[in-house]
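= Tokenised fold =
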Amino acid sequence: MLDESKPLFQAVAEQIEDGILDGTYAEDDPVPSTNQLAAFLRINPATAGKGLGLLVDAGVLVKRRGIGMFVAEGAREALRQRRRFAFEDLYIAPLLREAAQLGITPEELASMITKEPAR
């Protein structure tokens, strides 16, 4: 399902990225075409194409003329690395700032995190 909180083309790109990260699309595998994505997601083909274009521009997908789009070599690791940095910016940095404001030590924070799955 597409994340409706962001532009559709960006959500399309993230859905393909998720498929690469979870192993649905391995390196050198083809990804759905613009028309297939548009039909499946019920969106305009231009929107689907723009999402795929983002991934081509980022080096995640490669175009093979007359054949389609394929997952680039090293795409999974590059995506994983990029998302780790984003995770740090979006979640870890604010968490650490809030913990500091509340006087939570790094040890206490680590303890909270390790206890969480047991809840």
User: Anything to note?
Assistant: The helical segments are 8-21, 34-41, 45-57, 75-101, 106-115. Residues 19 and 25 are 6 Å apart (CA to CA). The mean pLDDT is 93.
